[in-house]
Structure formats: C-alpha cells, structure tokens
Design a protein that fits this description.
There is one protein chain. The protein folds into three domains: 7-68, Molybdopterin biosynthesis moea protein, domain 2 (Alpha-Beta Complex), CATH 3.90.105; 79-296, Hypothetical protein af1432; 307-374, no CATH class. It contains 13 helices and 13 strands. The chain has helices at residues 51-59, 79-103, 111-122, 141-159, 164-176, 197-217, 222-231, 237-240, 247-262, 273-282, 289-296, 345-348, 368-374, and strands spanning 7-11, 14-20, 29-30, 34-35, 41-43, 64-68, 135-136, 264-265, 307-310, 315-320, 330-333, 339-341, 353-356. The chain has a five-stranded antiparallel sheet with strand order 12-11-10-9-13. The protein has a four-stranded antiparallel sheet with strand order 1-2-6-3, with no helix packed on it. A two-stranded antiparallel ribbon has the order 4-5. It is globular.
C-alpha cells in the first residue's frame, strides 16, 4: 500500500510524524537534520521548512521527512546519534557508486575503504547504540539496506568476538549480498515478501545475476564470495539451525530481517522494534538464537524514556532497561503511577509489553535526572 498519509512513529518519549514529500508545507519543523553527500549540514533540527527547503527535499529525491508537531519539544539526540545519521547519509552515496559500478561490470572504487570505516566505527563498540532507521525510496532502497545490514553485522560480529579478518569478510559480504536487487525493475527492488510466482522467479534470477557479477568483477577473497552465495540460498528450517552454517550468514540473515521490517519505505509502514524482536525470538529454527542475542546486545530497543502500551491496556514509561531480556524492562504506569518490574517472573505471567505507544495524549518529557528519581 502506498503511504500517502502521515505516519506517527515513536522515538523515545516524543512523537515524530512522517510526512511524504508531496505533503510538506512551509513552516513545518524538522525533527531530524538533513545533510548533503559530503556530510555537510544543510538543515538543522527544529528548522522551519521554507519553499526553497521543500524544493531541496524534492531534488534530493527524499520520500519525506520526520516532522515535529507545532508545539512539540525538540527530541533529545546525543552527539553519537547525530554522527550516526550523518555517517548514514555520506555512506549511502559511496555504496551507490560502488554497487552501480559493479552492476555495470566495473571495479568498485571505495568499497573496502567504506568497509574499514564501518568496522572502525561500529565493529568495536562496547555499548548499545540508538539504531536510527533511514527513509527509503524505491531508487535508494538497495543502498540504504546494504549500509544498515553492514552496520548491524559489524556490531553483532563484535559482540560475538569474531576475529578481525572474519569480521571484515562479514561486513563486505553484507554490503554486497543483495546487489541482485539492482537487476530487478525499480518497483520491485524494495519488495521482500509476497512475491507472485513470476516475481519470485525474477527475484531468484536477479540474485544469481548479482552473484555472478560479483564473482566476475569484484576483487575479494573466496570467503566473502562464499558468504554472499550463502546469503542468497533458500534454506529450510533445518538448514538454518545447522551448526555448519557460517556465522556470517547467520548474522546477515538476522540483520537483514531486522532492517527490512523496521525501515520506512513508500509502500509499507514499518513494524515496531518490539514486534520485530518478538518475531526474531519466536523461532530458533529460522533465526540463530546466538545471532539474535548479539543483535539485542548491540542496539537499544526499550531504553529509559520510551513510552509503551501494556497488555492490560495501561500506558507507561520505561525507566530501566533489562539487558537480559529487552522486552521485560521496568515500567512506570501513567494510569496508576505504579512501577512494574516486567523481569519478575510473577509479573511477567500476567503483564507484558504490547507495543510501543502510538498515541501520546499523556506524554511527558523525562530527562535523565527525573528518571533517576523514579529509581529511588
């Protein structure tokens, strides 16, 4: 379904509104900064859109922007969060140039430089990061997907203590494994499920064409090529749970699923991180549990300040993370002003998180010092 309407997306304790490019109006306030391909800041957060700004967004071929409501406070962003979004913008242009070169039978120019950057920035992290999703059009879906999967793969392989050479192989494979989508019609490049029989045959052929072009034109070691080939195979549940499946394939499969499901594109509304994590945890024959655990140890899912809906109908605020099970944090109920420890076995039997909160009628702004008060 084409997203031609506003879509409310919860990020922390505030509501960001996704507005498609054609619906942007002068005076709307930006919730996120906009950078050019060189990482130069063009529009700061909280900037009010001008007519020139709207023309710029259209020229950048953005599908839309995250906008704040008129009286909405500016959402908090750490320097790390800002740098993450800036890096995403710059890296996508680099990936686009390299993947197009490969598709045209040419050598990629900066791919190994980018892979090294990703490993340096995200392959040695000792803490979880806020994994901010990027907006995707059919024209840039492949490049943004490749970038995000490679970042997730770097984070996860670090958590799994993968050796440096193997980690680099996994990140390079993550950049390359889905290049076959570029051989599909543009309107199919961001399609990930519900293929018709004919579409599925086109997709499988495109994947094989992608592998062949990599095999013929990319100067990478055989380990990377095996991982790329492995990511393109159709596996049964038994195959996926096999201990013989390379770690890189297990990691990329989990990263692929998480990115596909949580990304905003023109045709599908994203699923919430809570729902996607629940899916990943629900079937250990499809998704390797150790790889899923590495993902959960790498990115923030339900961190302090996030508003949630509970299964009893109450709405609340996460005030403490649960590193052992991200879906069972400590929550302050708005309705009863009561703290629920969802990690308690007794509480968990009757109360769980249903989803991220979709409406913010009772929203409050909570800073770190206020959160600490709740803990005492």
């Amino acid at each position: 379904m084409y997203v031609s309407f506003r879509d409310d997306v919860e990020r922390g304790q505030l509501k960001l509104i996704f507005v498609p490019t054609d619906d942007l109006k002068v005076g709307m306030r930006l919730a996120k900064p906009i950078y050019n391909k060189n990482g130069v800041l063009l529009y700061e957060r909280n900037t009010k859109l001008t007519l020139q700004g709207i023309y710029s967004v259209k020229n950048f071929e953005l599908i839309g922007l995250y906008i704040l409501e008129p009286a909405e406070p500016l959402p908090p962003m750490t320097p790390e969060d800002i740098e993450f979004e800036r890096f995403q913008t710059m890296a996508v242009f680099s990936i686009k140039d390299d993947l197009k070169s490969i598709k045209d039978g040419k050598k990629p120019g900066e791919m190994m430089v980018l892979a090294n950057q990703i490993v340096r920035l995200y392959g040695t992290q000792k803490h979880k990061i806020n994994f901010a999703q990027n907006l995707r059009s059919p024209e840039d879906y492949v490049y943004k997907h490749a970038l995000n999967v490679s970042i997730l793969a770097a984070l996860m392989s670090n958590r799994l203590h993968v050796g440096s050479s193997e980690q680099m192989n996994i990140v390079v494979a993550a950049l390359l494994y889905d290049i076959g989508r570029l051989f599909l019609p543009t309107n199919m490049q961001n399609k990930t499920e519900e293929f018709s029989a004919d579409e599925y045959q086109m997709y499988r052929k495109a994947q094989m064409d992608g592998y062949k072009i990599i095999d013929d034109n990319v100067d990478i070691n055989t380990s990377v090529k095996r991982l790329v080939r492995g990511c393109q195979q159709d596996y049964s549940a038994d195959d996926l749970s096999s201990k013989n499946l390379p770690w890189g394939v297990k990691i990329i499969k989990v990263a692929h699923f998480y990115d596909v499901k949580t990304a905003m594109n023109l045709y599908d509304k994203p699923e919430s991180e809570v729902k996607v994590v629940r899916e990943l945890l629900s079937d250990d024959k499809i998704f390797d549990p150790t790889a899923v655990r590495a993902l959960l140890d790498s990115i923030k899912i339900l961190s302090p300040g996030v508003c949630v809906e509970l299964t009893n109908g109450e709405r609340g605020l996460v005030i403490r993370e649960n590193d052992d099970n991200p879906l069972q944090p400590m929550v302050l109920s708005f309705d009863k002003n009561q703290v629920y420890d969802l990690s308690s076995e007794r509480t968990a039997q009757v109360l769980q998180i249903k989803d991220l909160q979709k409406t913010m009628d009772n929203r409050i702004i909570v800073d770190d010092s206020t959160l600490q008060e709740y803990m005492h």
